[in-house]
Amino acid sequence: MKLVGKLVGLFRVTADLTQAQLADRAAVQVETIASIEQGRRALLPDLARRLDALLDTKGALETAVDNMPEVDLIPAWAEQYMDLEREALALSWFENQVLPGLLQTESYARAVFRTDVPALNDEEVDSRVTARMGRLEILHQQEPPTASFVISEAILRDRLGGDDVYSNMLRHLRACTEITGVTIQIMPLGRCTHAGLSGPFILLETPEHQRLAYTETQRGSQLISAPDDVSILERKYAMLRTQALNTEESRGLLERLLGER
């Protein structure tokens, strides 16, 4: 990331452009260019292509991004997603195993990290819980994203952390249904069709109206920017919303579960 960032800075200076001028021509925020040049943010393939065209670098940046070592790519994509999440205009999130991070309570998050194998030590758990809790302000900021969540009913049946954690999680999730701009739909058990069998994913729209997707696997993560691939996931999400309970039905299920606890 630092090497690619240095290349962007070198090519920009050679083209006699300031960071602000390059950001304006590339239709991104100046902070984006600054973060990339400092190695704090990954250069995404589509932006690499735009910068190559603007700076007349004959594909050098796109080639560099395409050939970044996997050891650099995986944490880079995860870090980049966190930056994008904070700035997103819209988030669409499907989960089938665990509550989305933005909807977790502190005790639930702690229970999730306690299940990691190999086990995390207390310091690592505390650090990850603190980082996750810091993300919750995204739904309550002055200009929050439009956020849609489709979550499997199976998540609500698990009792990670025990009965107290479970009860607090249900109450918190019920409260989240009242947040302005947030919609929560539950995918019920026992369906004959399901558009999300390939696993969880997140869709987001950036302030520049770029549409991206993010997925995680057992040993890595991937930020998806190719329009064709993003389009496929957008169609999957649209189908998931039709298959899930609507918002009123989902709220009713949460209330029934709270009454059964």
How far apart the termini lie comes to 48 Å
If strands are numbered along the chain, what order do they take across the biggest sheet? 3-2-1-4-5-6
Question: What best-fitting shape do the alpha-carbon axes yield?
Answer: elongated
Global structural class = alpha/beta
Averaged pLDDT: 90
Please summarize the sheet with the most strands: 6 strands, mixed
> What low-confidence regions span 5 or more consecutive residues with pLDDT below 50?
none
Question: Rg to the nearest angstrom?
Answer: 20 Å
- How many beta-strand segments? 6
**H-E string:** HHHHHHEHHEHHEEEEHH
Describe it for me?
- With 261 residues, the protein is α/β, with parallel strands linked by helices.
- It contains 12 helices and 6 strands.
What's the structural blueprint in terms of helices and strands?
Layout: H1 2-14, H2 19-26, H3 30-37, H4 45-55, H5 60-66, H6 70-87, E1 90-95, H7 106-114, H8 122-135, E2 146-152, H9 153-157, H10 163-176, E3 182-187, E4 201-205, E5 211-217, E6 220-224, H11 227-243, H12 247-260
Parallel strand pairs: 1-2, 2-3
Antiparallel strand pairs: 1-4, 4-5, 5-6
Helix pairs in contact: 1-3, 2-3, 4-5, 7-8, 10-12
Quickly list its features.
single chain, 261 residues, alpha/beta, six-stranded mixed sheet, 12 helices, elongated
